Amino acid sequence: MFQIRYCLIPLMSLVISAGMAVPQTQFIGTTNFPAEMEFSELREIKSDVVITEPSALSKIADGKLFVQAGFSKYLARTYGLPDKQALFIEDVTLKDSRAAYSLVSLLRKSDFLQGPPGIVYSTAGNSLLFAQNEHFVRLEDGSLANDLLKRVATSISNRIGPNNQSVPRLIEHLPNDGLEMRTLRYFLGPFSSPAFSPAIEGKTFKSETEVDVVQADYSFGTQHGTLSLINFPTIQLAEDFFDKSGGSENNDARNIYLKRAGPLVGILEGSFDRTYAASILKPVEYKYSIRWIYDKSNRSTGAVMGIPVGILGTVVRSIVLTILLCGVSIFAGAGIAAFRLLLRKYAPNNYLDRPERTEIIRLKIDEN
Fold it and tell me: Using a CB cutoff of 8 Å and minimum separation of 24, what contacts does 73-77 make?
């Protein structure tokens, strides 16, 4: 017993010391912010902000823009850094991925960069912002460790989850020739704040319907200008706006040129002459597509005599159903006739065969 006791004491001491040496780091939380002790530079959490009401965003920088984009939740956290510096992180949950992309395009101070983090991000000085799914994230770092922003942003991007976002389709309609991509701005309407609405033809564009607008600068030599593409929810609204804007009266004197393609209306303004304006607006097209709806449970893709198996099967089933209905009708008629014959034989005075019900009217058409 003496030897066993002295063997157990060192073993228990080793287990206890090992447990104390391993840091208890938690990497899963209720928010997308970095976990405790995930980054050695993040010393402490100085403040946390949670906002779910639009009215409470009035004191937040760019709060009006968040409201216009359709926010559902605003989270902000401040971490302490060495040398009395701080890292400020905002995570804004919006109505969809287009709203997140819009915020990045309007608030960025440098060119777009392809993610990760996010589908696109932009960094300038000690700030970084990116869009991923329905999240807009902005980080501001007061330290000199420039790589900290990228590492923390990548961690937040991983916590948000798989990136299933794509660039808004309206941007794909922008012509490529002469495009200055660094000037791209994407707006979502209806526009509740004039300060963040697109300016078209020298005035704020207003719309009470769900439209989106993309703007970018174009240049050809000494000629410069801005192209605005407006995507209306219906073709009728686009036609109405085009007609009211005098789309059929394009001329060089106004230096404003319009083109409509389906629900899209392009407005080009600047110092372009008619030739360059036509070359810029020519690629603005809208193609209609037809999507066939089919039965996904029917996995057969073969064909018999050039006829798809699915269609052929429908025809065969219709013919079989018609034959069955004809057979049922014949048997039903024969059964009723047999029943009447038996009824006359064994019950001659029945209700159906009484003289007053079986009178026959004869037309003597062949007699003079």
Answer: 74/49, 74/50, 75/31, 75/32, 75/33, 75/48, 75/49, 75/50, 75/51, 76/47, 76/48, 76/49, 77/31, 77/33, 77/45, 77/47, 77/48, 77/49
